[in-house]
Structure formats: C-alpha cells, structure tokens
TrEMBL record:
This is Glutathione S-transferase. It comes from Aspergillus terreus. It comes from the Eukaryota. The keyword Transferase applies. Pfam families: GST_N_4. GO terms for molecular function: transferase activity. InterPro entries: FAX/IsoI-like, Glutathione_S-Trfase, Mito_Protein_Transport_Metaxin, Thioredoxin-like_fold, Thioredoxin-like_sf. The lineage of its organism: Eukaryota, Fungi, Dikarya, Ascomycota, Pezizomycotina. Belongs to the FAX family.
Length: 225
C-alpha cells in the first residue's frame, strides 16, 4: 500500500451517498476500497461522460497533480489500483488453480448471472424498476427515459442470449447459479470454526471472487431496486 493515497472519486450512478445501489459492480468496487481502508468521494456521474459509457467509473489524482486519470470498468479499475500499489493483490498469494477457480466464479456471476437479473428487473418487472430507479424524474420524463432504457436493454439481452429464454427458463438458470454459490459458501462455512470468517474458495483469506459475491448479494438481496 502507498503511504500517501491518491484522491479517488467514484461515480456510482446514484446521488445518495452511503446507500447501496443496484449495480453489483459498484458495490464490488466500493467493497474493495473500504476493505483496504482507502478514502474516496462518491458522485452520481453520467453515462455520457463515463470513459466506457457505463457505471461505475473513477477519477484518480495525486494531491499535487493537476491532471487526473479517468477509468471505467470495475475489474480494470481494481487491476489499475493494484498495479499502482494502492490496493492489495488479493489473488497474488493464491495458487494458479485457485486463481482459475476465482476467475471462473467471477465470470459466472458477471457474464451470466448479471444478465439474468437485468432481465428480471428491466423486462419481467419493468414498471417496478422504472418507477423506483427513475423516481426523481417527473412522470412524463420517467416514461420516456424508461422506454429508452428498455429499447437499449432488450437488444443487448437478445444478442447475449438471455432474452431468447422464456421467463421460467431464465428463473431456473438464475436459481441454479445462486444454489451453486450457496453450496460453496455452506461448505466453506462448515470447514471453519464458529468465530472464523469464511470465503467462497474456502481459503484462509478473501479473493476477488468474494468481493464479487458480496456485490451481487447486496445488489440482489439488500438493494431495494
């Protein structure tokens, strides 16, 4: 860890600081920063100004620097902060086999489970999601913005494959993933004593997959969206 941490501004897509948001990628990134004791400032941000056109993104600057580094994609942000010796490398101390398992778990959640929940929110429960996420907008504007989001989301889900499944098929796939994650956590918990923390890969320390699991649990089970 560096002695003089840089200034980090996290754009999380939601104006209310101190509250969880429905994006598992935002929650994952915030968890990594908090667990490492890195101070950061949050702002709502905008997809229009985001480096990769998505949330979250960050601006990182040294106290004495006039220029800042702007980055998008939570995984790339974490890799950059590790390379800059700002965050600890959680996966640097585990075996190649464990790193492969860690990567597979993260891909399962971020490349499959994420889309099942996006379908659940923006297709199967469109009106509930629209009226919650866009609650600060006047109703006529909310209808238009919600329709734009849906029109952008539907082709993505169809091209990715999730949109081609029936609602029941999507629910079954989603349940299968969560049950598998639960089985891993139950097995890891059973191998530890009552007062010890437990991790998804059953190791003695957390890995990147634990932060991803935390992000999805918070996003799906705690966030009100």
């Amino acid at each position: 860890m560096v002695s003089d941490a840089p200034k980090v501004v996290l754009y999380r897509g939601w104006p209310d600081a101190g509250k969880y948001v429905w994006s598992p990628f935002v929650v994952k990134l915030e968890a990594r920063l908090r667990f490492a004791g890195i101070s950061y400032t949050t702002r709502a941000g905008s997809l229009k100004t985001a480096p990769k056109g998505k949330i979250p993104y960050v601006e990182i600057s040294e106290d004495d620097a006039s220029a800042s580094t702007s980055m998008g994609d939570s995984t790339l942000i974490i890799k950059y902060l590790i390379e800059q010796n700002i965050l600890p490398d959680l996966n640097g101390r585990i075996s190649p086999t464990a790193r492969a398992h860690d990567l597979a778990l993260r891909a399962l959640m971020e490349e499959k489970l994420y889309f099942y929940h996006m379908r659940e929110r923006w297709v199967d429960n469109y009106y509930l999601m629209r009226d919650h996420v866009l609650s600060s907008l006047p109703y006529p504007v909310r209808v238009v913005v919600g329709l734009l989001i849906y029109r952008n989301m539907a082709p993505v889900l169809h091209g990715q494959g999730t949109g081609r499944h029936t609602r029941d098929e999507s629910i079954a796939f989603r349940r299968e993933i969560w049950e598998s994650i639960n089985d891993l956590l139950v097995a890891s918990r059973a191998a530890r004593t009552d007062d010890e923390p437990f991790w998804i890969l059953a190791g003695s320390e957390p890995t990147e997959a634990d932060c991803t699991v935390f992000g999805f649990i918070v996003s799906v089970m705690l966030c009100t969206a």
